[in-house]
Amino acid sequence: MSNLKFSKNNTYTREEIWSAAGMSGKQEFNFARTGYGRIDDNVFAFINIGFKGHAEKIFENKFDEETETLIWYGKKKSHSQQPLIRNIIDGEYNLYCFARWDNTPEFRYLGIGKVLDYKDGASVIDKDGKETTCIRFRLSCDDKTASHSVISDFDESFEEGLPDEGTEGRKKIVKHKKIERNTKLVRKKKAIFKKKYGKLFCEACGFDFKNTYGARGEGFIECHHIVPLHETKKEITTKVDDLALLCSNCHRMVHRKKKWLTLDELTKLLKNGGAPTRT
Prior knowledge:
alpha+beta, 2 domains, about 25% helix, about 25% strand
């Protein structure tokens, strides 16, 4: 994913943004007329804040100038399982946020939005004045904020000894977790595993989400990169064989201490009921 060059707080029209994204000719409908449009792995959000729209209702989007936090409501009926929305959440797409506070053609560039959290089923009023639902995002447009989608499977209060923000070790941990959430790699790993075993289950404890949660657990399992990138000095290319499928509990236990567990160590720990293993 390559970042496009926009200057924060400068204003741009849709036409200028279309051109800056390397496009020519007539704009696609979603880009020209709706709240957001996609070009390759970049999504451009055109956000109305604090003035009345077609339904004579004030747009509920909000932007905090001090913290650079943006509350953004998606299109009507949008939700987290739609492919485009899912890719925004997972950090697969850049989300360029442009906002305006009146009905002029210029939008102010707020920055690339990083997902802090989101909510499906948020209540809004559509252009015809009818109540409907959509996804609501809380985004950070602060350049210093790492994408929440990179680390959202992990609660840092449970992880000891993480390096400080900005250090090389910290950057490698973020990279490690981003690989574990790489949609294409995870999908391929799951497909190979399911073809071999007929179902998805934790490689450490055998937990099967579908057996426990029924249809809601169908296809769910977390992916773990078995190579601790923060402990390596050279760049490596991740292969499917470098990934293991783990349940949420086992995955968290791997990352619980500064010295991460190997899959073999985790399996032995489970077999011994948590007691230290003898060598």
